[in-house]
Amino acid sequence: MTKQWEYQIRVFLDEEKAIVARKNPIDSSLRPLDKILSKHQACLKCQYDAFSEYCALAEKSGETDQPLYRWTKATLADPLKVKKFMQSFSFYVEGDEVYEKYKADALEIDLAPLVNDGLIVSLKKHDTNPSNNPQPPSNIAT
Bridge-partner residues for 92, per DSSP? Predict the structure, then answer.
């Protein structure tokens, strides 16, 4: 049986739009994006916020000895990476962080014109195949 990977759509917004999207993703300046979110039963999640929430949860549960935690914590301590991840957003579809390819494809198609119009700086589709995703180094110090 062939493994069916799941997917996630991520966008990069300019600094001004990222601030608006984090505070109020249904702001009128983001209306074209809001229409697509509604159509796909999706919501935006800022990568910085997702990283912060992950670290808080790991700290609360005492699971801070994992490579992913150490990498994420180090990322949040780097001002250049913080700036980058504050402008990076994932789409959660129907409450799911990753989803079937057909959902990602449909979302990607609808978002593409917003890249051309300048609302979105860049758009990428990621999959859950580990060989396509760098793994956190195991030797990050805490």
Answer: 43
